[in-house]
Design goal:
Oligomer: single chain
CATH architecture: 3-Layer(aba) Sandwich
CATH class: Alpha Beta
Bound molecules: cytidine-5'-monophosphate
Shape: globular
Number of strands: 5
CATH topology: Rossmann fold
Number of domains: 1
Strand content: 5-15%
Number of helices: 9
């Protein structure tokens, strides 16, 4: 049997990360949070004293990325999300991270990847694709709670402004903009608890998996 790949895309704090983790447990598949790759490139660029706007420098840093660099708690901060979306506009950065994502996606048995361009660019043939959304206000509230629980001191209004700025940058860039794949199932989690969202995602993937199995 081939590889069952699940692509989970959507904007910041839509719930896609938690959904991807729950799907990983339900279907026994490894999960890659691809946002961490861009966060790592952003943080490493800043630490190296290079400019985030420098496509050559950020591309070289991306080319040297290893899995071991993804465990750094500094990648989970609000600042790292902003750095990530600034380096993510560069084609050389995106190209350099492609091989890492492909080898994860192509492992035996399958995999789950969550991000912005998994269903459109990284794994366009994935047999299961989800595009997870929620209103900016609800996403900002979730992200604010998460950051506050991590000990960051930040105002809700500032988190909402971050989310709006990132949506505009991620959706408006020329290379691999954030957009739902035409064959992705939309899942709006605005009115859902995380349990409800995870259940809805699991049902969507069960249907996709049954269809995929019958085609194998
Ligand atoms: O999902 P997360 O908030 O960690 O992503 C951080 C940033 O990384 C996003 O705002 C986006 O600019 C970039 N990203 C991307 N493509 C992905 C994953 C993340 O461009 N597949």
């Amino acid at each position: 049997m081939g590889r069952f790949v699940i692509a989970v895309d959507g904007p910041a704090a839509s719930g896609k990360g938690t959904i991807a983790m729950r799907l990983g447990r339900a279907f026994g598949l490894p999960v890659l949070d691809t946002g961490l790759l861009y966060r790592a490139v952003g943080v490493l660029t800043q630490r190296a004293g290079e400019s985030l706007d420098d496509e050559g420098a950020t591309g070289s840093i991306a080319a040297l990325m290893t899995a071991g660099q993804l465990d750094d708690p500094a990648l989970r901060t609000r600042a790292a999300g902003e750095l990530a979306s600034r380096v993510a506009i560069h084609r050389r950065v995106r190209d350099a991270l492609l091989a890492f994502q492909h080898s994860f996606a192509h492992q035996d048995g399958g995999a789950i990847l969550d991000g912005r361009d998994i269903g459109t660019v990284i794994c366009p043939d994935a047999p299961a694709k989800l595009y997870v959304t929620a209103t900016p206000e609800v996403r900002a509230e979730r992200r604010w709670k998460q950051l506050t629980a991590q000990g960051e001191v930040v105002a809700y209004e500032d988190v909402l402004a971050d989310i709006r700025r990132r949506d505009a940058r991620d959706g408006g860039r020329d290379t691999a903009p954030m957009v739902a794949a035409p064959d992705a199932q939309l899942l709006d989690t605005t009115e859902m608890t995380i349990e409800q969202a995870a259940d809805a995602a699991r049902r969507i993937v069960e249907v996709a998996r049954a269809r995929w199995e019958s085609s194998q």
